[in-house]
Amino acid sequence: MSSINTNLSAITALQSLKATQTSMNKNQNQISTGLRVSEASHNASYWSISTKMKSDNGALGAVKDSIKQSKAMIDTYTSALDKSMKYLDTMKAKLTAGSNPGADLAAIQVELKSSIEGLKSAAGSATFNGQNWLEGSPSTVKLVTSYDGESQKVNSLEIDTTKVNLFDDVADPKAGLLKNVANIDIATAPKAQGYTDLAIDAAKVNATAGSEDKIYIKLSDAPNTTLTFTVTGTGSLQDLADDINADAGADNVDSKIEASVVDGKLRITSKTAGVDVSASFSDTAAGAAGTAAGTMKLDTTALTGLSQGDKIKFTANAVPLSFTVGSEKNAAELAASINADTNLKTQVTATSDDDGNLILTSKTGTVSAMTFENTTKGVDTTYGQIAVKDALKAVDKAINDLRAGSAMLGANKALLETQEEFIGVLSDSLTAGVSAFIDADMNEVSTRNQALQTQQQLGVQALSMANQNSQMILKLFQ
């Protein structure tokens, strides 16, 4: 049936052309944007997933920027610490030179002051983005390292700035790793109390009656007087120090010196400023009666550790006598030296046996109360050099502290570099994932565009032909 009101062929051709046009519009949109899912209506699921992934990737980009800033910040502080280490090394060299008696401490202090100002400058100028870990109040700083999209949480690396805090205030340091260094002044040091350190093995301290160990002390304000402390108990070095501090014997040891334990050594300190101290510890071993009448013997065990300054004491015919060890290394050499001694050879004869024991025999009577004192001398100081020694100790400690701080910063920077690499890989993976969901395959789009253009041309021709069907009806009425 032919109708002039309804052209079914034209309607069909028009619908087909519209569908083709719609497909072309969609295809051209993909060509212009490069996306096959550019809005939720194209694919709600893919659009939602890709949107979240792009958001997470943006957060990761911010994390990467933060890590770069953190690395630059650490580099700033590391450079300042390296410079500070050079200043400290210079100070250490100057103080070592100042340890020599007669050194010009005032001139050295001028050089030390210059290095101290350099340390303050390095700490005060180590500012990055308004932060300075080397100066001010130490705290725990959190550096951004990652973003967890699942839990919407920013993860961070905690750094304790106490380990690199050089000064609380460079203008007036009262705290910080370099506080003691900043206060060094060897030119106008107070006349501190002198002290000496004795290296004593507490396990060998002897309080046995008749062979008690002794500590001999001399003070520079009374050079001809020797204070004697006789060991009254055994135990730790701290126990020995406590006994010395409680001694109120004839020499009034407790009123003139104070004992303490420092770095595993017994420290004897003058209670008077400007007074030097020297001391020695006598590890006493008692001799035994010999097999023959009028003899006494020191066995080879007692003579272990023989050194210059050790003493052999004994009584011969009621006369107290002593022999001070020089270069002798064994009992045979001791015997030869005693027999050559002008004061001793008239009283006793010294021999040694095959076991390395020393034997004394009285020439006219008896030998008794024989002891061997193995002497340990303290490390003497003078109060003029105490400031130098303490300063050198403070600088050494500062060097170790800064070395530990630099190592901490280096380890954290290495961690940030590893994290930065991981974040980069993760960001690339998210970018690839987003592409898989929403990016158009341009090869496919291009091929489809050619096909749609052909379909469009055919549709136009089909519609034109369908419209001509109505013209054919006119011919029927001619």
Automatic annotation (TrEMBL):
It is found in: Secreted; Bacterial flagellum. Keywords: Bacterial flagellum, Cell projection, Cilium, Flagellum, Secreted. Residues 4-137 form the Flagellin N-terminal domain. InterPro entries: Flagellin, Flagellin_C, Flagellin_N. Residues 392-477 form the Flagellin C-terminal domain. Flagellin is the subunit protein which polymerizes to form the filaments of bacterial flagella. Belongs to the bacterial flagellin family. This is Flagellin. It comes from Microvirga arabica.
